């Protein structure tokens, strides 16, 4: 009986320690100067935002069609996508299709912005004085 428990413990131990640590995407080197990396990232971001969630191969096709300057190869684009994920510009989604997985890149949802420009000045009410708080009239129980 204890032999079976030892085998299970060994299997769990091997499974736990055989996993690789995840890559710290915040420390990815984009292989280009920072200013150029941001311009490439903005172009890729616009492509993904315009065309919705895209796989890596579809993103590469769209990037070639847009002829992004500074993007050297598909491998360089993958590095840039990881760099963008590390800077919270993109999110990676996983869709299960049958027995296979499909990974899609999408933009992060933007904060909802209220439309302040459409309001006229007469609609905007400014509060100039603070309302005074009335003291409570309840008596405390002892």
Automatic annotation (TrEMBL):
Compositionally skewed regions (Basic residues) per UniProt: 127-142
Stretch list, region Disordered: 104-142
Domain of life of the source: Eukaryota
Protein's UniProt name: Uncharacterized protein
């Amino acid at each position: 009986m204890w032999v079976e428990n030892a085998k299970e413990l060994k299997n769990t131990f091997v499974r736990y320690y055989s996993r690789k640590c995840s890559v710290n995407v915040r420390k990815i080197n984009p292989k280009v100067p920072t200013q150029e990396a941001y311009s490439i990232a903005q172009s890729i971001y616009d492509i993904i935002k315009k065309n919705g969630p895209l796989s890596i191969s579809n993103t590469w096709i769209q990037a070639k069609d847009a002829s992004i300057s500074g993007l050297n190869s598909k491998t360089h684009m993958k590095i840039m996508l990881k760099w963008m994920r590390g800077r919270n510009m993109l999110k990676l989604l996983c869709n299960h299709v049958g027995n296979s997985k499909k990974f899609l890149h999408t933009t992060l949802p933007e904060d909802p912005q209220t439309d302040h420009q459409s309001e006229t000045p007469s609609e905007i009410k400014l509060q100039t004085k603070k309302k005074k708080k009335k003291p409570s009239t309840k008596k405390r129980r002892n």
